[in-house]
Amino acid sequence: MTSSDGPDRLTNWREREARVFRVLPYGGLVLGTLLALVVPTPKGLGAGPTLAVAVATGCWIAWFVTLHPGWQSRLKLMAVYYAGLLAFAAVLVAASPWYGFFAWVGYIHAFPVLPKRWRIAGVTTTAALVATSQGGGLAIALSHWPLWLVLVLFNLGAAGSVSWFAMVGEQEDAKRQRLMAELGEANRQLTDTVRENAGLHAQLLTQAREAGVLDERQRMAREIHDTLAQGLTGIITQLEAAEQTRDRSADWRRHVDNALALARESLTEARRSVRAVRPESLETARLPDALVELGERWSALHGVRAEVSVTGQAHALHPEVEVTLLRTAQESLANVARHAGASRVGLTLSYMGDVVTLDIRDDGVGFTVVEPLAARQPAGGYGLTVMRQRVTQVGGELAVESEPGGGTAVSASVPALAGSAG
Predict the structure, then answer these.
(1) Which residues cross the membrane (predicted)?
(2) Looking at the domain assignment, is residue 32 inside a domain?
(3) Alpha carbon 127 to chain centroid distance?
(4) CA pair distance 90, 133, nearest whole angstrom
(5) What is the pTM of this model?
């Protein structure tokens, strides 16, 4: 059975019930009239008056039931109809007991047209009329009233049983209608929810796409700063130094070679950044070794001693964490070279259980730290902002301590997320 069988069966049952309600009275009326005319009873009204009452009865039913089916929902009007129906039935039964075939229509019409408290009266009256017809007519019923009373009680018992089942069926029908209405409302709400969820899903996709675009822009901005900007700054610094030492061929050549090396390294790192590949130094060595190599290259390039130390048990970290710490060290050293005028720099990588900390200290000129840190930095650069974004993105914290003439200390603390040992 499909989900639509229940409503379809209920609709078909109501259509059949409506046809019985409208058609059956005419069948009983025609049958009773034919029998009354073919087999007339003594002391009846006669064929003419009986036929006239039968026609009037048919017109009464046609007017209220056939021609105006919508009136069935108007209880007061239907009460008038039912009273007239019983009155016509009483006259016809008195005229001929054969109209008992019509009188029992009162059982059928009592339930659709009468309120519940009036149905008992309608059924009782109908039972009396049917008992009268079964007893042979009004005259015989009056003369043999004990028999008539037995027939009335029998009809009441039979009608009561049928009525009880009809009332139970009506209650079940009302319950089904209520359940169908609730189910329809639930389906409507579900449809609205699905439609709303579809809209939210589309909105989330749009927001996720926009967020992805923004994240990619920020990533590219950081990578460009960490590769191209730093490389170009170093190249410019070396070329300016070469310009100042053009009379000393050895120093001039050294600065030019440094500029060429920086250009090649920057180009390589820029290509790796576009492909979202880790820095080459982390591809070939562990983070502590990469920091040592970075310190040595930076010292050789700028002539400032950079010491790198490692504390705790070194172990492989998540690639993004290692990239963050390496880029932080690169940016800090670049800031020292551009702004600090330091004579010494120290880098300390500390493995402390669940946290890894990188500290970069210099003895340069320092500066006044303004919060928020991203709002201002020496020479209006972008480096501290990039460092903070990187560190925050991996769930870490960045702290900067400095004062004019007192040097600068940068500390990046990040979660020690484990990575592959390879």
Answers:
(1) 20-39, 45-67, 79-100, 120-140, 147-167
(2) yes
(3) 60
(4) 10
(5) 0.43
